[in-house]
Amino acid sequence: MTDPLHHILLSQIDAHALPRDRDTHDAEAQNELEMSILTSGLRQPIEIWQLSQPRDDHRYGLISGFRRLAAARTLEPRRSPPSCEPPRTSPTRLPPW
């Protein structure tokens, strides 16, 4: 059985819903990631979950893929949306759009 797919807006994902383990930003590495996604696509999905209470315009929280989400938001006008998925315990896959 395959998981149903849903399209969501990248803007609906709260990148700060959970504490992040990285607190540094490497602009060169981020640019390399953006170029990789632009040329080869997103190879590892962004992991999200549906918030029980929406916050502002956010309906989903980011579990993993902070840099990939930032890159997707930068590239959004130039390419189709990347895939996202909820935690492994959830039956629904949620690609953002």
Structure keywords:
97 residues; four-stranded mixed sheet; alpha/beta; single chain; Conserved hypothetical protein from pyrococcus furiosus pfu- 392566-001, ParB domain
Question: Can you offer a commentary on this structure?
Answer:
- The chain is an alpha/beta fold.
- It has one domain: Conserved hypothetical protein from pyrococcus furiosus pfu- 392566-001, ParB domain (Alpha-Beta Complex), CATH 3.90.1530.30.
- Helices cover 25% and strands 22% of the residues.
- The protein has two helices and four strands.
- Strand 2 and strand 3 form a beta hairpin.
- The longest helix has 14 residues, at 27-40.
- It is globular, with a radius of gyration of 13 Å.
- The model has no long low-confidence stretch (mean pLDDT 78).
